């Protein structure tokens, strides 16, 4: 038909996509090393300065307040100056914020800087996720976002180990964190890979996101509940369960490492079969592994690490899988606005999770931690089954003018569909013109996109 092939007609190989995004992944790894170091450093230093547990809690909560605001503000900045400049500006401000906390060791300054840091990292996540989703196709999105999560978790976990390099009461670790965050900008600035186009991006409110994909948007919120619960209250559970300090460290390490190890196989599986079914299966398996991990906490160390690692791998995978599923339902111009709303949903869930499980544990004891996580995942799995059944029933009774194309359309099938459209266009061209200009159909220009990318986005 004479059209120049694009990324939709000739899908970019997965390895090529990863290599093209290498500068972004390196930058994110350095950022998360710096952020992971901050998390432990500030907690230890605040305790040394006798800030008090309530004040420390408020300082840490300021991060999430900034996180929520940053998820909304970043989209406006991206439309004005583009991806690379926003990424660089936010990293620069985050680098300065940690130095200010060393210069002014007072609760008010720390609270303000944690707010700024949360705003910056939320914006960086919006930039990164919308960038990757724009490069991905429905056949590679699960694996690409799995790589993204592996980089994030390994960077976050590696940052914890840097705490042993110097005395937290001195300035060295604050400077190291600032250096890591500052250097993270360099690979992206020196990369020749073009950033996605933002001039054609459209807004995507949380309400509209739930209309387009209630299952995916709800899943990101649930992932926030789970992630916030684990990261915010995991060590508290381990302490209340009677673990020693060394075993608490192993417990948290197993959770994070498990989250990194299972991202790739689950992401790959979701690219090959119906992603919704993978998510539902992971939710139910995660609930079962939560109950197993609760029992295994008192077992010998290898069994505890294996059980807790399995749970962490399944629980943390829900974020990337639901991100991939939601973006499967979107057009490229909607992905930037959707990334902002998805980060917002994740942040809200991360705030609610620790508060909710804290109330549960106050009534049920330490065991309430894993029981809460199991109930949340079972409820989400049942919600997913309801979504699949509802929309399958609606699709069977509502006629559609779109041509349904399987996700794995063969070359013969694609050629046949193109021939049908070519025949329709020839017949239209041969129709006698009565002199009146024909109004352009609202679906004009979409038919070729439907053939290229498969069925149009469905609300599920």
Helical proportion? Answer: over 70%
Mean pLDDT: 77
Shape: globular
Helix-strand makeup class: mainly alpha
Calculate Rg over CA atoms: 24 Å
Oligomer: single chain
**Helix/strand order, N-terminal first:** HHHHHHHHHHHHHHHHHH
Instruction: Summarize the biggest pleated sheet.
Output: none
**What is the number of helical segments per DSSP (H or I, 4+ residues)?**
18
Residue windows where pLDDT falls under 50 for at least 5 positions: 1-10, 399-417, 431-459
Assess the beta-strand content as a share of residues.
Answer: under 5%
Secondary structure: number of strands: 0
- Alpha-carbon distance between the termini? 33 Å
Describe this protein's structure:
The chain is mainly α and 460 residues long. The protein contains 18 helices and no strands. α9 packs across α10. The chain is globular, with a radius of gyration of 24 Å. It starts with 13 loop residues before the first helix and ends in a 7-residue tail after the last helix. The N terminus and C terminus are likely disordered.
In short:
It is built from 18 helices and no strands.
Top keywords for this entry?
single chain; 460 residues; globular; disordered N terminus
Write the layout of secondary structure elements.
Blueprint: H1 14-20, H2 22-48, H3 53-81, H4 83-103, H5 107-135, H6 141-161, H7 172-183, H8 185-189, H9 206-212, H10 214-240, H11 245-261, H12 263-272, H13 275-296, H14 301-328, H15 335-364, H16 368-397, H17 411-430, H18 447-453
